[in-house]
Amino acid sequence: MNDGDVEMLPPTVPDSSMAVDSGEEPKYGGYSRFEIELEFVQCLANPYYLNHLAAQKYLSRPEFVAYLDYLQYWARPPYLKYLTYPGPTLRHLELLQQERFRRDILSPDLVQRLVEEGMKSAVVWHAQA
Q1: pTM for the whole thing?
Q2: All domains of the chain, ordered by start, with CATH?
């Protein structure tokens, strides 16, 4: 690590034994870091949101790309179980690690293809259930 780098560690997983308002974990707008990061990482399942991030130039910012790398802890237990849509969420998080994908997601064709793939996956999953 460089002198200016800050090591980012995954947040602690909420425990039912923790007091709801114990004051142990800082709140940001009333939410814990765990809740904020969970909501954000789940938004990555939406191809239109990925396109928005690219259009706003977030995906070309080194600090944001580093944040996306940090968020890969969601692919491991115990965090994985908190994801509502783990398939597309983790797939897109993995794709976002690639510079080419971060550029290409600006393409409406790629966005549409990801939307269609997501719908096909949902149909197959529901047919198996």
Answers
A1: 0.79
A2: 33-128 (1.10.10.1340)
Q: What is the DSSP-derived secondary structure letter of residue 81?
A: G
Identify whether the C-beta of residue 90 lies closer than 8 Å to the C-beta of residue 83: yes
Which pLDDT band, with edges at 50, 70 and 90, does 13 fall under?
low
Partner residues linked to 114 by β-bridges: none
Cβ proximity of 111 and 55 under 8 Å = no
Would you say 121 and 86 are in contact if contact means Cβ atoms under 8 Å apart?
Answer: no
Tell me the two tokens of residue 37: 């990061």
Per-residue pLDDT reduced to its tens digit, 41-88: 999 999 999 999 999 999 999 999 999 999 999 999 999 999 998 999
CB atoms within 10 A of CB 30: 6
Look over the chain and give the mean of its residue pLDDT values, rounded to a whole number.
86
Q: Which of 41, 36, 37, 57 is nearest to 102 (CA)?
A: 57
In sequence order, the 6+-apart residues with CB closer than 8 A to the CB of 92 are 44, 45, 47, 50, 114
Nearest residue to 32 via CA among 45, 18, 17, 46: 18
